Amino acid sequence: MSNARFARFLLALNLLGLLTLLSMSATFAHEVRPAYLQLHEERPGEFAVLWKVPMQGDMRLALEPQFSGDTEASTAVTKDVGAAEIRTWTLRAPALRGQTLTIGGLEATMTDALVRVEYLDGTSWTGRFTPRAPAAVIPSSKTAPGVAGVYLSLGIEHILFGVDHLLFVLALLIITRGSWLLVKTITAFTIAHSITLALATLGFVHVPQAPVEATIALSIVFVAAEIVRRDQGKEGIAARAPWVVAFCFGLLHGLGFAGALSEIGLPEGHIPLALFFFNLGVEAGQLIFVGAVLSILAIVRRTHLALPAWVARVPAYAIGTLAMFWTIQRVAMF
Known about the structure:
This protein is an alpha+beta fold. It has 2 domains: about 200 residues, no CATH class; about 110 residues, no CATH class. The protein contains 9 helices and 11 strands. The longest helix has 30 residues. About 5% of the residues have low confidence.
């Protein structure tokens, strides 16, 4: 077995071990869905509240917003939208600024909560609550840099925990040969998903999310099959022009990112800023992953081990099998 082929195998095998643990079920690929709390001041001291909590089947996360000061809430109206439960009510809080908001139960989960407060005077606040920091003081105002920071971190986390997107990038790295071709491939993927992310988020493109998610999984199957064909001496389009495949399927992955962003929500008054920094976070997370892959590759290139020839085929079959499972499961959920 050549050193180059062994390097590719060891690289993919190490990453697949980690990714497979994160993918014990197909639903894990998009389970970084935050809860979302929006408070919109309609009259002085009176807020229309929207509370969106992720659901898994018929089970919802036991999360509740709690305020430290004097508040009075009306009876909530509950609506089940499939992937989440939405509750709306009216909150009377004459002095909301300066209160401590706690997302009760968040510390016992693996999700985050995004909070958006909009005031009559045009100011707003966007905060991100995590299991380690489930409480925060609502400040008097929120500047644009704060919104940028929240959505930048959300973009990074979405790509790093979006196992299907990472698996597609990994497959591209395995099939692409040459540094310049790799740069073209990653750039094409970045441009493509940035285009559809913006178009879908801003409402210019409307595509049902379920078929998009199934096709994303199928795109991984396709590239895995192309890796197998290349190893058999039959180079397909993915081996000859991986940047073309990266661009075409990148358009689909951008629609997947847009679906995740729509679940999070965009703050009114800062939509372009939030969209830009979410996309920037996705790119940063992608570069972190690619950098990690290339670092491992640089290390294993110095390794000299004799392994059977069939071992080099394991990564492509593992990627394809997992992606095919996702495809079947997502099609069954239509």
